[in-house]
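It is worth pausing here to work through a concrete case rather than discussing structure prediction in the abstract. The textbook approach is simple: state the sequence, then state the predicted structure, then interpret. We follow exactly that order.
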Amino acid sequence: MDAHVTRSRVGGTTRAPPSKSYTHRAILAAGYADGALVRSPLDSADTRATMRAVEAYGGSVERREADGSLALDVDGFDGLPEVPDDVLDCANSGTTMRLTTATAALADGLTVLTGDASLRSRPQGPLLDAVESLGGRAESTRGNGQAPLVVGGPVVGGHVEIPGDVSSQFVTALLMAGAVTEAGIEIRLETELKSAPYVDITVEVLDAFGVEATGTDAGFEVAGGQSYGPAGGEYAVPGDFSSMSYLLAAGALAADDDAPVVVEGAHPSAQGDSAIVDVLERMGGAIDWDRDAGEITVERSSLSGVEVGVADTPDLLPTIAGLGAAADGTTRITDCEHVRYKETDRVSAMAEELTKMGASVEEERDELLVHGGETDLVGARVDGRADHRIVMALTVAGLVAEGETVVEGAEHVDVSFPDFFQTMASLGASVTTE
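Step two, the predicted structure:
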């Protein structure tokens, strides 16, 4: 499916979708529990993969309405996952694969996990090594540290050493599974942890489900023998700042003079991607965050390039690159090598696709430089790379490009923001899909 975008103004009030990161963790935490009601979850392709995983391990997930919004009634497997009856297909969801690989290590038998072509190219080796060091079985069928994976247990806990610069999801997976092992898991990081706020999200969700995990000087640890269960049997998912970043960027670039963009559901949390507010402020954006009300208001602004490190906020790179292309001066995005190991190589993807739109871009292994002062964005046919974040960032850039921008692969927004194009249209964007 293609999205057709032309230069337009946006304005009005909208609401951020629920957080994908919190939804994944809440569904799996409810699976580790006897059960729980997950309120206001994100219902997307990725989170549905985690729902299927919980069911494959012996739980069940039923959708129902609660107070006028979606809720998931999860009947969990109470810390004792079964061996799935069939291969566990994680589709395009790296979070699902990594988090539930550790779940497989608790089962008394072998689980096979796979996914689509993109997911089968993503690194899993450090997590496989960790499972094996805990006494489980963990193999890549192709011997390259990538899916398909064969994983089995049951592991009882122990000490593991893993790199922190590949994926924070390895830490999350071990913490979530470690709480229901006999001995718990102590994690020592061999390198600096990238995307650290995502582990903060994990610790926050664990705490909400009655599980204690702590950071140490060397890494993290979680005691064994714990039980999952949220207070009152319910957990509510907060709004998603990763998805919100596209709405805020649209406001900063294209808000109507008489109608700023107001985004509701922006309550403070452990989400590192709330840094988009600071980035926009540093670029000169007229943005105000009422934290008590959970509302962010942003007006169209003259932006200037800045230097931004994304070691902890890799999902913001496409948004920041798009902003940089429309700003004065140069935007330098640093600490971004790990962003190459997402659904696609997002560093190269943004460099190549923004270049098609007339942007002046330089790509280094760990940096992306966008020379907005040398750029006049023009409409072009661009490839969303089957990556939801690339599709949305390029769509926002199309709001300020001369002529029509056609973004290929528009259907992939279903991964994290299924209503993205409807939301943009409701704000006045000239965007259609076909």
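Step three, interpretation. The CA atoms of residues 35 and 75 lie 4 Å apart. The chain is about 30% helix and 25% strand.
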